[in-house]
Amino acid sequence: MAIHPTAIIDRKAELDSSVEVGPFCVIDADVQLGAGCRLYQGVYLIGWTTIGEGCELHPGCIIGHAPQDIKYGGERSFCRIGKRNIIREYVTIHRGTIPESETTIGDDCFLLAGSHVAHNCTLGNGITLINNVLLAGHVSVGDKVTIGGGAGIHQFVRIGTLAMVAGNAPVRMDVLPFALVDAHGHIAGLNRIGMRRSQMLREDVQEVRQAYRSLFAPGRRWDDAVARLVETARTPAGRELVAFLQGESKRGYVGGSRRKTTNEAPE
């Protein structure tokens, strides 16, 4: 184990023997670090925090600190981070605010400098948060989502699998899987590049495209379009969309762009 002499590590912390800890890092008692983790200088780990193997934590990041919630009274809550995540400079990830609740991040995520993940967020696998993305409390982000720099996500918003959000976008409502959200916070089409890179089958892409045409058709009642989709979905991607629509939504759903593509089928 390579630990810089200026690092401060509580004796109760659990570090795998292969962990590297850089100068001026602080690791509190209830922290667990998996094999192959590397901490650059000035990393602060606190709270009931577990970090999986192979993660990189860059200078100045703060993981597992108390939530920014005036109702929080110091009760035990958790921060759980999966494997092979890259957490860049000055990222902040807070633990849950409700007693025994948790903030969770999956595997293979890339959180760029200045990103903030608030209390009780749930992030899947393969997610990219560009610089200064702000996730408010209780946000849920699906697998392989990309959120552009400076975007702000309202509390309790859900973002579906393989969605892509433009930089500086204000996202106040749930974003459907596979959606492309423009800088004004509206759906502007499908995340075609992400779908292609994920090697989605042609029939999956076609079903998603048709589903979007139905959901955003002029004059079509949303509930009717959802009911029809529930009955007709046949591919994994279609069922993913159905599962999202059947999930609990506290914010409603982001609508189509008001520009020339208003209510038209995303291409």
User: Main β-sheet: number of strands, strand sense, barrel status?
Assistant: 11 strands, mixed
State the total count of DSSP E strands.
28
Number of helices: 4
Q: What's the gyration radius in Å?
A: 20 Å
Distance between the termini: 52 Å
Oligomeric grouping of the chains: single chain
What does this structure look like?
By secondary structure, the protein is an alpha/beta fold. The chain has a domain of 137 residues: Hexapeptide repeat proteins (UDP N-Acetylglucosamine Acyltransferase, domain 1), CATH 2.160.10. The chain has 4 helices and 28 strands. Strands 1-4-7-10-13-16-19-22-25-27-28 form an 11-stranded mixed beta sheet. A 9-stranded parallel beta sheet has the order 2-5-8-11-14-17-20-23-26, with no helix packed on it. Helix 2 runs parallel beside helix 4. The longest helix is centred in the last third of the chain and has 14 residues. It is elongated, with a radius of gyration of 20 Å. The C terminus is likely disordered.
What's the short version?
This protein has 267 residues and is of the alpha/beta class. It has helices at residues 192-197, 202-215, 222-232, 236-246, and strands at residues 2-3, 8-9, 14-15, 20-21, 26-27, 31-33, 38-39, 44-45, 48-51, 56-57, 62-65, 78-81, 86-87, 92-94, 102-105, 110-111, 116-117, 122-123, 128-129, 134-135, 140-141, 146-147, 152-153, 158-159, 164-165, 170-171, 179-181, 187-190.
Features:
UDP N-Acetylglucosamine Acyltransferase, domain 1, disordered C terminus, 16% helix, alpha/beta, single chain, 11-stranded mixed sheet, 267 residues, 28 strands, elongated
